[in-house]
Write a structure and sequence with these properties.
There is one protein chain. 49% of the residues lie in helices and 8% in strands. By secondary structure, the protein is mainly α. Strand 1 and strand 2 form a beta hairpin.
Length: 305
């Protein structure tokens, strides 16, 4: 992670202490005089506890929060950082003998929702990266062969063992294919309820304005606070792609990230005033509800549905 992210708040009553201190004071009506050092410790303690209370139930990924300053920006910001890496544990969706329609419905729902809170890439992202790398962006076999010959100097008579788009698509397990998802009304009650909970929490998070969403960031603002990230890979550290079937492709696209670091930011939110800290915590809870819903879906026991 970039050295720009401090391990702790580094300056007594710096602007981020004052900002979050205003939020702490709004929650505590028992005002009393204290030294700057005492104030600093209390601000950090109250903030850290509030964050941990929200994130503690999450087991899908290891997340932490860092408060940032930038000389070029007018306000401090809070970043959510993902310290997990690799394939997300998909539980019964990947390993059980449950009906393909059930597993495909669950996997499709995760693929459509989890990117709103976690830095994660799915199969479509992987396919696009591989297509650009090997086939000059082509997605059909004939065009991919032509690209290999024209741009990579491949021998047109020696492409028999070359991986083409159809080869990659054919390796997808049936439960990865959205078209195989069973209709919601045909699913067992427990699975149907879990999917509805996931979709409702996703809609709630997506309804938040970007400037008040702890799980959102834009690239330009991110690099103002964390300029070292410009050297990192743009690839997220987590994936929904089963590595057992796509080890070579995942290794190919992850090579730069393994050397220079992944884009491990889940969100970065500038905070111009103490009221925005309250908004940030509300959105932090909204994202945590989405991840808890995903976690509950993955942890279902298909034998008891």
């Amino acid at each position: 992670m970039s050295r720009e992210i401090p391990v702790s708040f580094d300056q007594p009553l710096a602007r981020h202490h004052k900002l979050i201190g205003g939020w702490v004071a709004s929650r505590d009506q028992t005002a009393r005089r204290c030294t700057r050092a005492e104030a600093r410790r209390r601000i950090e303690r109250v903030f850290d506890k509030a964050v941990l209370d929200i994130l503690r139930p999450l087991e899908l990924a290891e997340l932490r929060v860092a408060v940032l300053n930038s000389e070029d920006m007018d306000a401090p910001a809070i970043a959510i950082v993902c310290d997990s890496m690799g394939q997300l544990d998909l539980g019964w969706i990947e390993t059980s003998d449950a009906q393909i329609g059930w597993r495909a419905a669950a996997y499709t729902a995760l693929a459509r929702t989890m990117g709103s809170a976690l830095p994660i890439f799915g199969y479509d992202d992987l396919f696009e990266e591989i297509s650009m790398y090997y086939w000059d962006g082509e997605i059909e076999d004939k065009a991919a062969r032509d690209a290999l010959v024209a741009y990579h100097g491949a021998d047109p008579e020696d492409l028999e063992d070359t991986i083409l788009p159809s080869d990659m698509n054919d390796r997808r397990p049936d439960w990865m294919i959205a078209a195989n998802a069973a209709p919601l009304r045909s699913l067992p009650n427990g699975l149907r309820s879990a999917l509805r909970n996931l979709r409702c929490s996703h809609r709630a998070l997506r309804a938040l304005p970007d400037e008040k969403n702890a799980w959102h960031f834009d690239g330009a603002t991110l690099h103002e606070y964390l300029p070292d990230l410009e050297e990192c890979s743009s690839l997220p550290p987590l994936t929904l792609v089963p590595v057992e079937q796509f080890a070579r492709e995942v290794d190919d696209v992850a090579r730069h990230g393994m050397e220079y670091g992944f884009m491990d930011i889940a969100g970065l939110c500038p905070l111009p005033d103490a009221a925005r800290v309250t908004d940030w915590f509300a959105s932090l809870e909204a994202g945590a509800r989405l991840l808890l819903a995903a976690q509950e879906l993955i942890q279902l026991d298909p034998d008891t549905l």
